[in-house]
Every structure is written in C-alpha cells, then in structure tokens.
Design goal:
GO terms for molecular function: kinase activity. By secondary structure, this protein is an alpha+beta fold. It is built from 20 helices and 17 strands. The longest helix has 28 residues.
C-alpha cells in the first residue's frame, strides 16, 4: 500500500519522526506555548468581525463570498467511484420534532455523528486503501474544558454533555487514548442552526459559526507544524464539518502557518491577522445529510461533500490510496453495462459517462417553448351538458344511454362521471369530443381529439392485443352521439346538419379521484405514493409488453379507485398521447415530461418512468416555476446532479429513493426498465409496511 502504515506505535522511531535542531526545538516550544494560550474561540471570533464585514461587503452580489472546496464535477466523479461501496450508519440521527428535550436531542445527535463519521472512515479505508489492514482511526468527542477527546457514550455517562464542542476523526494511538491535536484528521462541529443556511446556496454561515470553524482549523494546523507525525502530503490544509441534526457543510482552511507571527503576548491578534492575510478559505453550500427518519442519504450532495472532505483528510496522512477515484470512477460505465446484461436488458453502446440524459440536441428546433395556458372548451350553445342530462350513443348499431352525474376537468378539458341508464349503480368516465360542426376540420380542437378519438384508438388496440390489467382503463363503450330528432345523414359514414351529429363519445372504467385531487386535499401520503408508483409501473409494464408507451403521465392522469373494491388502487388513464411508433409524439409538459421528450420530442425506454418520478416528486410539495423548455431542462439537470429528487423521495420512502436512483441511471439511454424486480420491491414494501397484498401486473 502506498503512503504510511497505520501503526502509530513507532511514533518515536526514526522512520516516522525527525529530531529537531536546537533552533527548531526553540521554535517548537514557542508554538506549543502559543497553542496553550490560544483556547478561546469567542475571543478569536471577535477579532475577525471587521474582516468578515468587509469580506461580505466586497463580495459579488450574485455569487458566493468564498470559493467552494469541491467542484461539482469532482463530486460527480467521486459519486461514481463510490458505487457499490456500502456505508452503514447504525445510530439514527434524532429528529428535533420528536425529541423530548433539547439535551436529549443533543446527546443522541453526538452519538449519531460519531457513528456517521465511523461508518465514513471505515468504508473509505476499506474501499480505497486496504481491506486487510485494520482501520487506523478512532472517533471521539472533544470536551472543551480540557481539550481532550472521549467516546460519545463515555462522555455522556460522565456528564460532560454541556462541555462537548466537536467530534473528531483521529489517528489511533494507544499511548494517547484521549487523543492529541496533531492526531486530528478532521473535526465536525454540531451546531443547531446549520440548516438555516441551507435555504440559499450562496448564503454563508454566521460569523460565530464560521469563526469557531476557523479557530479549530488553525489549532490543528499549528499542532501539525510541531508534530512528529509526517503530514507532508498536505500539512497546510484542514477540513472542518458543520452539521446539525439534518444538514451539513464543509469549511476548508489552507495556509502556511510558518507565516504566522507567534507573539505570545498578542495571541489572538496574530491568529486573526494570519486568517486575514495568509489563509485561503473555502465554504461549501449547506445541504441535507439526514432524512426525516434519521438515515443518512449517502449519495446525496450534502453527505457526498462531507465524505469527500473525509477522503481528502485521510489522504493527507496516508498518501494516495491503493485504488484511486479515477480507477473506480472509470468502471462506472462498465458497471452500468454489466447490470443491464445481468438483467438481460439488451446490449448497446454507452458514451464515456454511461449517460445520455443531458446531451443537448438541435434536432427538433420547432420545440422551443411550451405555453401551458389553459384552453377552455366552450361547447356548442345548443349542446348543453348538465348534471342529470342523458346522452345516447350508437355503437355497432347498438344504442347505450348514460346519465351525467358530475362534470369535472383535467386542468384543460372537461369530462364527466356518468351512469349507464340500464345500470344506475355503476359509474363510468364519459368523454365528449368536439362536434364536427363546431369548427372546420383543419381547426378542430386537437386536445379534445387526443382525449377522445386518439384515446379510443389506443384503448381499442390494448383490447385487441389482449392487455388485461386492473391498473389500465377499460374501454366500456365508444361511438357517435345520438342527437334528438330524425337524423338525416346521407350514409352510415356521413352526418346531417344537426350540430350534435357525428360527435364522438368515449366511455371508460373504472372511476376514481385524480392524484391531483388527493394532493390538494392532503390525502396523498407515503403509503399512497408507494402504491401509486407500484400501480402505475404495473400499468406501464403491461402496456410496454405491447409496444405502447404512455407519454403524458401527470397527476390528472392517475385516478385512485376506492368504490366497490377491498383494497384501493391506482389506474393510469389519459392514453390519448400514447406512442405506438416512431412518428408519434408525446405530450409536452414542462413539469412532467422526460428530459429526452423535451429535447427530442420523442420517448426513450425510461421516459414514462422518469415522468412518474417527477409526478411523485412534485406531489410531495415542491413545484417550481418553469416557463420554457430551456428552463425545464436546466431544472432537471440541476435536480438530478444534486440528487434533490432522490433526497425528496427518500423522505417519503427508501424504496422510492432507490427507484429514482435506478431511473436516473437509465434516463436518456436505450435500456428498458426491469419492471419485475421493481414491482416485487414495491409490493414487498407495501406488504411489509401495511400488510396488504396487491397484484403485481395484469
């Protein structure tokens, strides 16, 4: 293994230490004396007030005050390298909502942070450095009164909770069970208000928080400068983590402490002067690390930047790892490809990143912007549809009557809940198309055409191809309206002068409330979200087996069926924009369309699943303002790269987060979904959590 052995028992040997000359010995004593007097972070922070105010004043109004410690491309590569590496935090982070007292919350938080850091260094060491050698780190909490480290459980048992100020990763050394400052690789400061800085990515932690981080960073750098340990890899850089019970960020402090004036009579002024003149400070955005259940979202941007800081901290002492980030990240495409082959999902080439999702294309210049202004359909004045009205339709020379019970809208178009006149207890969805006389054929409303005529065609094809699933709508009837009076149409294919003549009608079952209604009424909880995902995925699995893709998944096109069934379920409706062949075009929706649909005007294999993920995400409460295709694509790129979608769905259910991760890996690629495995996982989650058995597909 490159770097140094983790055995620190030989600290005094000539292989890991160098004896100082008389002059250097004097210098070391001065620095140790300086360090012994440099103990008050609040006093140090006061000396930085003017500098902090001036820094804020001189910073650009539209950008961050400090540089970020890591570029997004670095984190993405690191994320690829971590694929397959298991991180397991055993102690959950407590939620402030359920904590009985603030002391109980703080005590459990220290236990959780200690466990989080231990899981981090253990997994990183075994993945990058050595699986055979023991982990050379310990994790402990810093007790502020004597600046010594204790195991969190031990510190709490000794009643030291009020004096705990940080949690550190240290090099193991049995001769120093309470740690030494030059043994610190990284410190994490637990502060209750860190999450308040997460609202704005350019917002900086307050001076008391940042000042304390700089104080500890400088103490570590000074301790290293007189240490017998060899930090030659990067002795001038240290990472400080800022965390609370949900959020976290990284502060990186870099600088040559040899430029610090070690005036023992002016300790805090000299330390502050070094920060102002000789240090380089980088501060990451504050992002979520733990979800509401207290589990770490290891792949999300918040946890990722903290783990990356820990990786660099380990490398400062132990040198380059045996397995580099580049080596592991280079296998990302092959790992993705292997997973597809193992699941027999086809064999096709990938680009160098294994992804196609955000390739910009100029193939469809006509798709520039989508205006989602509602098109309100005004029926023919003589065709008055009211609750209680009865419509008759002719289907294959057979007449059926339906009484209107309710008039609804899917956001742009009206539709109806009706009952057959010969079966008043049954409910159906009834869709009425545009009367041919209302507009010239070239101007006939296309939205109504998709809703009625095109959807009739799709449902008929499903029926012909033998698709049978309770999660798909069933074609109950379709035909032309029978208008009052004598019809004078010249032939079976023509129409007379009556304004209703030839108006198409579509009738489907079953009937239910839309997801949009459930969300608006606050009835779309975690159980409904998981069941909705399962049921819609089952519908997509059935339709894809016949070569049909939906192309218009949104809350108005999913209904929740509760009437007359033992266990409620969801049905995917609105198949008018379904894609049967390459020339078909899906609906364009800035919020719910897949990335590939917005870019190319077509669907890829995972497009419907991607739209399903967006629907579940937006139903959780976030609904950004999107006014152009360019803005919608940018939102998708940012949300996926920062893992905001996985993070949000992870708060609902771990299985939904896992499914969104899976869909993310397929977006824009030609690989089809493995429906069976995800239907089993979703079903198992529902069965275990709620004790209900459901059908996996039809």
């Amino acid at each position: 293994m490159e770097g140094k052995s983790p055995d620190l028992e030989s600290i005094g040997s000539g292989t890991t230490t160098k004896r100082s000359s008389v002059s250097s010995g004097s210098r070391s004593r001065t620095r140790r004396d300086f360090l012994s007097r440099f103990t008050d972070s609040a006093h140090f922070t006061e000396k930085l007030e003017d500098w902090f105010a001036l820094t804020l004043e001189n910073s650009p109004s539209d950008g961050p005050v400090f540089d970020v410690p890591f570029e997004l491309v670095e984190l993405q590569k690191f994320d690829y390298a971590l694929e397959g590496i298991s991180f397991q935090q055993l102690t959950r982070m407590p939620s402030p909502v359920y904590a009985s007292t603030s002391n109980a919350l703080e005590a459990k938080s220290y236990l959780a942070i200690e466990d989080f850091l231990h899981a981090t260094v253990k997994s990183l060491w075994e993945a990058f450095w050595s699986q055979d050698e023991p982990v050379p780190f310990s994790v402990g909490c810093l007790y502020n009164q004597n600046l010594k480290f204790y195991q969190a459980e031990r510190a709490l048992a000794l009643g030291k909770l009020d004096g705990l100020s940080a949690t550190g990763i240290l090099l193991k050394n049995p001769r120093h069970p309470h740690g030494k400052w030059d043994h610190i690789l990284e410190l994490a400061l637990l502060r209750p208000d860190i999450g308040s800085f997460a609202q704005d990515s350019d917002r900086l932690p307050s001076l008391p928080v940042l000042g304390e981080a700089l104080f500890y960073a400088l103490r570590i750098l000074i301790a290293r400068s007189v240490s017998r340990l060899d930090f030659s890899q990067s002795s001038n850089c240290v990472f400080i983590l800022l965390v609370d019970s949900q959020y976290g960020g990284v502060v990186k402090v870099e600088g040559d402490v040899n430029k610090l004036d070690f005036d023992l009579n002016n300790v805090y002024e000299c330390a502050a002067d070094w920060i102002k003149k000789h240090s380089k400070i980088a501060v990451s955005p504050v992002d979520r690390i733990w979800n509401k259940l207290g589990n770490a979202n290891w792949g999300d941007i918040g946890a990722l930047q903290v783990v990356f800081a820990t990786y660099h901290s380990i490398m400062q002492y132990f040198g380059a790892p045996r397995h580099s980030i580049e080596d592991l990240a280079a296998d990302h495409s092959s790992r993705l490809h292997s997973r597809r082959q193992e699941r027999q999902l086809g064999d096709t080439s990938l680009n160098e990143n294994g992804m196609f999702r955000f390739q910009h294309s100029t193939m469809s210049p006509e798709i520039v912007e989508v205006h989602e202004e509602s098109t309100k359909i005004e029926p023919e004045p003589s065709m008055k549809l009211e609750v209680g009205s009865v419509l008759w339709l002719e289907e294959s020379n057979y007449q059926k009557g339906y009484q209107i019970n309710e008039i609804l809208t899917n956001g742009t178009l009206p539709y109806h809940i009706a009952s057959p006149v010969d079966d008043a207890g049954k409910s159906v969805f009834l869709y009425v198309g545009s009367p041919p006389s209302q507009l010239e054929p070239a101007w006939e409303d296309m939205n109504l055409w998709y809703q009625v005529q095109r959807q009739t065609k799709i449902l008929s094809i499903m029926k012909q191809r033998g698709l049978s699933s309770k999660y798909l709508p069933q074609l109950h009837a379709s035909g032309r309206i029978i208008h009052p009076g004598q019809c004078q149409k010249p032939s079976s294919g023509g129409r007379c002068d009556h304004p209703w003549c030839g108006t198409p009608i579509l009738v489907t079952t079953p009937v239910g409330e839309t997801v949009a209604d459930l969300v608006n009424e606050g009835r779309f909880g975690p159980e409904e979200a998981i069941r909705c995902c399962h049921d819609c995925l089952s519908a997509l699995s059935s339709s894809s087996s016949a070569g049909i893709r939906h192309g218009d998944i949104r809350p108005e096109n999913v209904v929740y069926v509760t009437s007359g069934v033992r266990h409620p379920y969801f049905v995917l409706i609105g198949w008018g924009h379904a894609v049967l062949e390459d020339r078909d075009r899906p609906a364009m929706n800035l919020h719910f369309s897949s990335t590939y649909a917005l870019q190319e005007g077509k669907l890829c294999a995972a497009s419907d699943a991607e739209s399903l993920i967006y629907m579940l995400y937006f139903c959780s409460g976030d609904f950004p303002e999107l006014d152009s295709v360019e803005g919608a694509l940018q939102w998708r790129e940012t949300s996926w790269s920062k893992r905001l979608i996985q993070q949000k769905l992870g708060d609902v259910s771990t299985v939904l987060k896992a499914f969104s991760d899976y869909v993310d890996s397929l977006c824009g690629t030609p690989y089809p979904l493995d429906y069976d495995i995800w239907l089993r996982r979703l079903k198992r989650n529902l069965s275990e959590d709620h004790g209900k058995e459901i059908e996996t597909s039809g």
